[in-house]
Every structure is written in C-alpha cells, then in structure tokens.
Specification:
The chain is of the alpha/beta class. It folds into two domains: about 170 residues, Medium-chain alcohol dehydrogenases, catalytic domain (Quinone Oxidoreductase, Chain A, domain 1), CATH 3.90.180.10; about 150 residues, NAD(P)-binding Rossmann-like Domain (Rossmann fold, 3-Layer(aba) Sandwich). About 25% of the residues lie in helices and about 25% in strands. Strands 3, 5, 6, 10, 11, 18 and 19 form a seven-stranded mixed β-sheet that branches. A six-stranded parallel β-sheet has the order 14-13-12-15-16-17, sandwiched between helices. Strand 13, helix 5 and strand 14 form a beta-alpha-beta unit. Helix 3 crosses helix 10. The chain is globular. The site of beta-D-glucopyranose has 11 residues, from helix 3. The site of zinc ion (ZN) has 10 residues, from helix 2.
Length: about 375
C-alpha cells in the first residue's frame, strides 16, 4: 500500500513509499485511515527541522492527526469493546518504560526516549491502514465523526487548559479572564474550552481575521484582539482588568517575555508551542523576577497529550457540536486527495485553518 514519507532532517523530501498492509496479532486492531490532518509540526518536518525515522529505517511515514475505521479486531483485542466499523482516533506518543510513561502519562515522559507516531521514531498514519493496540485508540461517537480528525489537536488544547487548572489548586483560584495568544487550530480550541469553563476569553493574533474566524468568535463569544495594532505588551492595559490565565500558542520568541508578564496576581501562563532555532533579545530580567515573585506568577510548558486528554476532548467536542452544530467541522477549510499530496506548500497558505488529506475511498 502507498504511504506518504519524508527523509528526516532534509527539506522537500516528501514522497510515496510502498509498504505492506500491516498484519495484526491477537492483541491488535487494524484500522483503515479515513483522513489525516496537517499542522505546524508537519510543516517543521517538511522543512527538515524536526522528525526522526524509526530505528533501521531511512524514511518516516508522516501524519499524526488521524481518523480511521476499525477494519479487523484481534481475538484478544475484542475485550476492549472495539468492533469492526467503529470510528477511532489514535493517540500519538508511545511510552519508553519510565515511571511516568508506565503510569499512562507518556506526555510527561521523564527521559525523552518516547516515540511519536508520524513525528519521532515511529511511522505515522498517512497511509491506507495502520495497526494499534486498543489502549492507543479512542472510540469516536457518531455526533463528532466529522470534526474528529481534529481530536488530536483538540487534545493538545485540552491539556493546555486542564494543566493550569490542576496547578492552580495550589490556592483558592476563581479565574475570570483568559487571553489566548494565536488563533491557529489549537488556539481556537483552547479559546472554546475556556469559554466552556465560563471565562471571559480574549483571542489575540496579528492577522486580520477571516470570515470563518469571525464567525467562530461571534458564535462562541470570544473577543478578538488585534495584537499587531497594540503589541502583545499592550494587551493587559487594553483589557483593563487582571488576566488570570494566558495560553501562548504562537511559538513566536518575540511574544514569550510579554506572555509571562501579562497575568495579574497569582496568574499562570502556559507555553504550548515549540520554538525552533534561536532568538536573542535584551530583556529586563530584574523586572520579570520582581513581577513573578511579588505576584506569585508562574509559567509552565505544556506538550503532547495522553489518552485521558483525548477522551476529555471527545466529550468537549460533543458539547460544542451540540451547542454550535457544524462549527467545528467548518474549521476544516481544505481537503486534499491523498494522491495529490506531494508537497507541504499547502501549509503556507495562512488563510486556511485546518488542512486534511483525504484517503481514497473515504466516505466517513
Ligand atoms: C503534536 C504532539 C507532539 C508535539 C511534539 C505536536 O504537533 O500534536 O502530540 O507531542 O507535536 O512532537
Ligand atoms: Zn518515558
């Protein structure tokens, strides 16, 4: 069967390879891929900045955001309840045996020796079939079948929002105001999740929002801030009340310092987007320290997501779908047939929200 692959750390190497259809053991499930989403990490992989092939292999089959249909269930895997015809989304990271990985939290891996399907040391889902154990699959209810290809990025937003709430149990915390920096897919999801929790949410970006984003802001009740006009540092004054929570999703090094300084007393900033390369700037560390200490402020890095975040994400997607039918699905702005996927250039079109690759014969 055909699979889309790259040679890691080399730019512009996207090509098709021919690999055998996987054969499952009694503990595994065979999944037919319906569609695969692309994101900023895929872009980095395409540019040759990121990504690692499985041991002993020259290429990496890409794709980590997937939706598929169960085609075959191994004898022992039946006890999971999964059956032929079920829609499933696979998690991304695979454990390495450290204590956190063993506890089901490979997103909190201690060693860095984890693998990630389609990203680091394990083939991804950009092909006709893949196999998995049921523990790495999340069953998708019919109501969210259409947006479910975005459950993986949704699970990242889920973690980006639940982690600060978990951390802030350090005190009495009744957050009212949140700022989300960046309005890509995960940024939009994070803003939606914060609205579900009843916060007043400001989403900031530097681009004139297109009609789709405007519709999302209006439907969900998100306030938009044009950070190009006022600068990231100008956001607190513009809002005019203490910011309890900031979710940083631009990954732009020029934003990080101001993102950490943006919160009011006891506030928390989560940094969720990976920055490549290096960037030098003179900043006032005395000022930052003064504000962090006197304000009990904190900043936390957040990466990846575990199965729990996918399950929570599926529930929250269903809630949003019920309140705003079709809104999530409308975020899929471009569908490219698998056979035509020959370059990552499609990710340079910033007017797109989510680009997906449709596998042949996908009807789901
Ligand atoms: C994926 C995560 C992954 C991260 C770093 C993101 O695009 O959604 O699952 O951990 O990249 O590789
Ligand atoms: Zn680990």
């Amino acid at each position: 069967m055909k699979a889309a692959a790259i040679i890691p750390m080399r730019k512009g190497t996207l090509h098709f390879v021919d690999i055998p259809v996987p054969r499952i053991s009694k503990d595994e499930v065979l999944v037919r891929v319906v569609r695969v989403g692309l994101d900023g990490t895929d872009r980095e992989i395409g540019m040759g900045y990121y990504g690692k092939a499985p041991k002993g292999c020259k290429y990496l089959v890409v794709g980590h955001e997937s939706l598929g249909i169960v085609e075959e269930v191994g004898r022992a895997a039946r006890s999971s309840g999964l059956k032929e015809g079920d829609y499933v989304v696979a998690t991304v990271r695979r454990p390495d045996g450290c204590a956190n990985c063993a506890a089901g939290e490979s997103d909190m891996c201690l060693t860095g020796n984890y693998t990630e399907r389609g990203i680091k040391g394990a083939h991804g889902y950009m092909t006709r079939y893949y196999k998995e154990v049921p523990g790495n699959l999340v069953k998708i209810p019919a109501a969210i079948r259409e947006p479910a290809v975005m459950l993986e990025p949704f699970s990242i937003a889920e973690k980006a929002v639940t982690q600060p709430f978990a951390i802030q149990r350090r005190m009495l915390w009744k957050p009212k105001v949140a700022v989300v920096l960046g309005t890509g897919t995960v940024g939009l999801f994070a803003a939606m999740l914060l609205r579900l929790r009843g916060l007043e949410v400001f989403s900031a970006d530097r681009t004139a929002s297109n009609a789709l984003k405007k519709r999302i802001f209006r439907s969900i009740g998100i306030k938009h801030i044009d950070s190009k006009a006022i600068g990231v540092a100008g956001i607190p004054e513009m809002i005019g009340k203490p910011i309890d929570m900031v979710v940083e999703l631009t990954g732009s090094p020029t934003v990080i310092y101001d993102a950490m300084r943006m919160t009011g007393p006891n506030g928390i900033t989560s940094l969720v987007s990976v920055t490549g390369g290096s960037y030098m700037e003179q900043v006032d560390m005395a000022r930052l320290n003064y504000e962090m200490v006197l304000g009990n402020r904190l900043a936390v890095g957040v990466v990846n997501s575990n199965k729990g975040h996918f399950e929570e994400g599926a529930r929250d997607m269903a809630r949003i779908e019920k309140m705003h039918p079709g809104l999530l699905r409308s975020m899929i702005t471009r569908r490219v047939p698998f056979g035509e996927f020959n370059s990552y250039d499609i990710l340079e079109d910033r007017s797109q929200v989510k680009v997906v690759i449709e596998m042949p014969g996908s009807k789901g």
